[in-house]
Design a protein that fits this description.
With 93 residues, this protein is mostly helical. 85% of the residues lie in helices and 0% in strands. It is built from 2 helices and no strands. The longest helix has 51 residues.
Length: 93
């Protein structure tokens, strides 16, 4: 045998296929995690938004309500953006 001899294709492709299959499973699992987190975040944000809106109407004077509502919406948006950004970095990064 010389140094130019290579591993038969059947052996190398089996190893490549198992590595590729594992990588695909990991990618699909990350997509599933992203989807589940997105649905949970959507439901939680809707419920939280409604609850905070009620609390703002109850406790905050009318002239300051829109300011508090905007601040709360900004905090929710930033938190969701951070979570989505983190998950996308895991998928593509």
């Amino acid at each position: 045998m010389s140094e130019t001899d290579t591993i038969p294709e059947s052996e190398s492709t089996d190893a490549d296929e198992s590595e590729g299959r594992g990588e695909r499973v990991r990618r699909y699992a990350n997509y599933a995690v992203l989807l589940v987190l997105g649905v949970l975040a959507f439901v939680a944000v809707i419920q939280l938004y409604l609850s905070v809106s009620n609390a703002i109407r109850t406790w905050i004077e009318p002239e300051y309500r829109s300011l508090f509502q905007a601040a709360f919406n900004l905090v929710v948006l930033l938190a969701a953006g951070l979570g989505i950004s983190y998950q996308l970095r895991r998928l593509y990064g």
